[in-house]
Fold this sequence. Notes:
The structure holds two protein chains of two kinds.
Chain A: H1 4-9, H2 18-26, H3 31-50, H4 53-70, H5 80-85, H6 100-122, H7 128-132, H8 140-149, H9 152-158, H10 162-173, H11 178-185, H12 189-211
Chain B: H1 4-25, H2 38-50, H3 58-77, E1 84-86, E2 89-91, H4 105-108, H5 114-122, H6 141-161, H7 167-181, H8 187-199
Antiparallel strand pairs in B: 1-2
Amino acid sequence: MFSNSEERARPARLDRDRGLVDAARHDPACFDALYRKYLAQVYSYAFYELRDHHAAEDATERVFMQALTGLPRFEERADSFADVRGAQKAADEIPADASTFRIWLFRIARNVVSNERRRDRRRPVASLEHATGLAAADDTFETAAAREAGSAAWQAVARLPEDRRRAVVLRFVDEMSTAEIAEVMGRSEGAIRVLLHRALRSVAADLRARLS
Amino acid sequence: MLGGSSRDARRTERYLDGLMDAEERGAAEAPMDLDLDPAVLYAARELRAGLVRVHPSFRFEEGLAARLAQAARATQGTSSEQPAQVFGSSIAPFRSPHAAAPAGPAARSGRTTARDALATLGAPRRLSLTSRPSRPLVVGGVGVASAAISIGAVYVAWRWSRASQTPMVRAARAARFGRAYAPGHGRRAAVLHGILGVMS
């Protein structure tokens, strides 16, 4: 059992993006490094959530603009992983590659995507390609996206409830740990663990039904 | 004591961690708990292979990078209330009547956000021709040195033009004139000539 002074003296893990974040705070032009590092992750998250690359691009742009604007307000929290569960976690259990900046960025992304989905429900908009059923001839992304969307795995995930799908995407596409997903989704780590376990069982049942 | 569901969920988590670590290391197989549900194992492998990270188009990436750079420049460059940094020195800003306008939270905290900067760009300030900004006064080593040189020059001119009243000073001055205008004579002769001139 640690005394209060021992707990305070315990070295805190630092954000792996601390250098880039400090540089961007000092000189906003340096935000480009963070943008390039997390572009694909944020875009993938938005794309799997919104299932439309135009909407994903819009969401991605909003996420990074909000991040740039809000960077002065970003606060690194070394013990943020403990906050979710309301209990102090040993420093050794915290993922070595944890980044509170990434969690903060994905919280922005989660809000942006939620707003986008809410807006789409109020005012459904279909892209021209979807309306006509034709993809642009030079749009290789559309071809790749169609191939991905047509995959059995993705279709099984798409049928999952929203929170399970979100957890699966963050785990498999963005390669987040359970603790990071818990932070992004604002849930306990145990809840995320169970959510992922049930999501995998549902996907397995879906894939087997499809095969049979 | 963990319930059955929690225990299975922990097994699943350990397998997923191992699966991703194995891919990072380039290992063929991930360590697996024998009690792991085969359905979970199957689904995890399928999702790992099927859910790929997608990248936006190069055109979008570069376009957004340019827009972010523009917003970053706006964040940096449009704050007229803060001293501009030029080659490591600072320039005192001209104070304008607008400087007393109510400051936003960012200005109060000493930082300028992109939103403030964009708001500044969107609503340009009107300059009043009747208002005269108070100029900063340059006080430094150059001004002091210039004043000292001027005072010294005035003093020398005054001393040069003022006729001396004492005989000794008149003798010394005559001796110097004598040396200047009679280069063929020695210094001693010039001094004697001067003294004699004074005495005569």
